[in-house]
Amino acid sequence: MTDAEYAEQKARVERYTERWLGPLGLADNWHVQVCWHREKAEQEKGDARPAMMEAEVRWQYADATIHVYLPSVFEVEDDAVLEKIVVHEYQHILLNELRSTGKSMGAEYLAHEEHAATMLAMAFLRTAEMRNVG
Questions:
Q1: Which of 29, 73, 85, 131 has the most CB atoms around it within 10 Å of its CB?
Q2: 36: which DSSP letter?
Q3: Torsion on CA atoms 84, 89, 94, 99, rounded to nearest 10
């Protein structure tokens, strides 16, 4: 990945990070750091593709790091899709605390968390869209 490609993809993600941290309640109450990677994430066994973003959350301290794998971002041409992915990943910050109660469910719990993050992201995006229309 060239420096120009890196900067372009980073700017795309930053646009949505800046747009969403406040409305999600993460700008004032959390310390959220973004860690940029020039390489793709390691592909988990059974996953169709490597992660584009990963949330590392320390909910006890309202502290999170979002890892962004820019080569995977580069593959997403549609900015609306990218925005949905960014908002989805930030939902994991809000949902992560529940992992401590779902440990006995194992991988099944993580599938439920992914679904919850997707549904919440879609709800936030739809609400924002409705506010812009009316």
A1: 73
A2: E
A3: 130
Question: Distance (Å, rounded) from C-alpha 99 to C-alpha 109?
Answer: 8
With the CA atoms of 76, 78, 80 and 83 taken in that order, what torsion angle do they form, in degrees rounded to the nearest 10?
A: 20
- Domain-by-domain residue ranges, the chain? 3-133
pTM of the model: 0.85
Q: What would the pLDDT profile of 89-119 be if each residue is shown by its tens digit?
A: 999 999 988 877 656 666 676 788 889 999 9
Q: How many residues does the chain have?
A: 134
The 10s digit of each residue's pLDDT in 74-90 is: 999 999 999 999 999 99
**Cβ–Cβ < 8 Å for 40, 52:** no
